Amino acid sequence: MKTPYHKLYIKSLGVALLSTVLLVSSCKKSFLDVDPQGQQPAQQFWQNQEDATKAVNAIYANLRSWENVAFPALVIESVGSDEADKGSTPTDATFWLLYDTYTVTSTEGSLQSFWTGQYQNINLCNQVLDNIPAITMDETLKARYIAEAKFVRAYSYFRLVRAYGDVPLRLSVPKNATEYNIPRTPREQVYAQIEQDLTDAAAVLPANYAATDLGRATKGAALGMHAKVALYQKKWSDVVTLTNQVMGLGYNLFPDFEKLFRTNNENSIESVFEIQAELLQGNPDASNSQYSQVQGVAGLTGGGWGFNVPSAELNAAFEPNDTRRDGTIIYRGETTPEGDVIPSRVPNPMYNQKSYVPFSQYVSGFNEGAQQNIRVLRFADILLMNAEASNELGDATQALSSLNRVRDRARGSNPLTVLPPVTTTEQAALRAAIYKERQLELAMESDRYFDVIRQGRGAEVFGPKGWKPNKNEVWPVPQTEIELSGGLLTQNPGY
To answer: Exposed, middle or buried by CB within 10 Å (0-12, 13-18, 19+), for 492?
Structure first.
């Protein structure tokens, strides 16, 4: 019997760690330096500090794989929401519509690809956690590497549990054949493990790094991710405690919303965690991120494929003079702030400006926008989580303070009368204002779909598109995984 992917742990680290996740160094992201030869046999690996470094760097490299940031991630985490449409041309990649209309079945390939991508991350993390403790090396660095692996493992399990509900919880590399085939673990237990990993990570990770390690997981990233995990479980007191800790670590809102997402402002004061990407001259294979490429303006040199485009509903949701609208949406016929003319002939009326890389940065032979980092967690989200949890606990004063910090930035140079601060202290009205602010602030960042579901508003918001309660809270488990498990894995209700 073939082995399902969550049970498939590649024995040859020369393949698992190096050959499939190549990156070489750059001046600002040198920690992503991975040996391009990738031929070190497994039996010679895990010998020294250099091996440990290669293994941890491979974890970060895999985070920007196709499965993690391109089609599979976008159909699972974005297009099902009311803020995004398929995009491109009507006949191109029509399987996206199965997610947009909630008619997808368990055999659709992106379900498997997303599942595979998360378990690839987890596998790499588990190899580090199983093997680094025995290496003789600098003990402080060892502890940090273990904490980084726990952070990424937690992040990947969070993505899995949101998407599929109960999932197999694998915390180590199988030692024999009897350990490969395991059932789904109840989501509550998965969440508990995620929280434990993030607690462990936050206790060890530094608040910041030197320039050569910029982009690694930090204490703020672990605390902030823990806050988000607590938010999904409605652990309001924990959310407030965790976000307060992050708010004390020196983060702030970047002053210009549109410029926040450009490549020269990556890892800014607002960045809590970003997936690192780089265009490395002479090495297209290592410059492999397709996050920007698949969402770029279609039909233009330096643009992209034109998928995952803003919807008319999102466009209409912004208040007049909210600077975030022009910072989120590229319109057909406009000239971007960076000087790119978007002609009226492009296929779609709108594109995602947050994933946009100016066309002048395109290098022939490379993926368009290969250098664009993926913003996973921003300080604005921390503030909005703090606002939501504070409101749920009856602290309207704190909720308004955090909420209006975000709203103030959205106003830009506009007078207060154009985009006024929120003032209501009535809990239900303030809750609605916070939900609205999350919609606008985090638009097109793969947050909206699961955000609405965890708020209990799936039928209200997505019902017109075909969303059904007691089914569409999660996607189907990939059928291939069920078959390869011999039926040990079970399907979600309704599928």
So the answer is: middle
In whole angstroms, what is the distance from residue 170 CA to residue 189 CA?
Answer: 12
The H-assigned helical ranges of 27-171 are 49-62, 66-69, 71-77, 96-100, 109-131, 139-164
In whole angstroms, what is the distance from residue 350 CA to residue 330 CA?
A: 5
Name, in order, each residue with C-beta under 8 angstroms of 381's C-beta and a sequence gap of 6 or more: 224, 228, 272, 441, 442, 447
The one-letter amino acid at 296: G
Measuring CA to CA, how many Å separate 441 from each of 257, 378, 463? Answer: 9, 10, 23
pLDDT of amino acid 414? 79
CB burial of 217-232 (b: ≥16 within 10 Å; e: otherwise) equals: bbbbbbbbbbbbbbbb
Distance CA 152, CA 374 (A): 15
Distance CA 238, CA 345 (A): 50
Low-confidence winner among 29-43, 82-96, 172-186 (lowest mean pLDDT): 29-43
Yes or no: say if 88 and 305 are a contact pair by the CB < 8 Å rule.
yes
pLDDT at 22: 32
Phi and psi torsions of 335, nearest 5°: -115, 125
Which residues are CB-neighbours of 362 under 8 A, at least 6 positions away? 301, 302, 368, 369
pLDDT(173) > 80: yes
Q: Which domains can be identified in the chain, with CATH numbers?
A: 1-204+462-495 (1.25.40.390), 291-372 (no CATH)
How far is 472 from 163, CA to CA, in rounded Å? 10
Write the DSSP string, 218-233: -HHHHHHHHHHHHHHT
Residue 438 in contact with residue 384, Cβ under 8 Å? yes
Q: Which pLDDT band holds residue 412 (cuts at 50, 70, 90)?
A: confident
Cβ–Cβ < 8 Å for 102, 465: yes
Give the type of residue at 74: L
Over residues 274-299, the mean pLDDT reads: 94
Beta strands in 374-471 (DSSP E): 374-378
Q: Are 202 and 272 in contact (CB under 8 A)?
A: no
289-306 pLDDT per residue, tens: 999 999 999 999 999 999
Q: Which residues contact 269 (CB under 8 A, 6 or more apart)?
A: 250, 251, 252, 253, 254, 379
Per the rule left: phi > 0, alpha: psi between -120 and 50, beta: everything else, 473 is: alpha
**What contacts 24+ positions apart, CB below 8 Å, involve 173-181?**
173/9, 173/123, 173/126, 173/127, 173/130, 174/7, 174/9, 180/3, 180/7, 180/8, 181/3, 181/4, 181/7, 181/485, 181/486, 181/488
Enumerate the β-bridge partners of residue 237: none
What does DSSP say about strands 350-352 and 84-87: parallel, antiparallel, or unpaired? unpaired
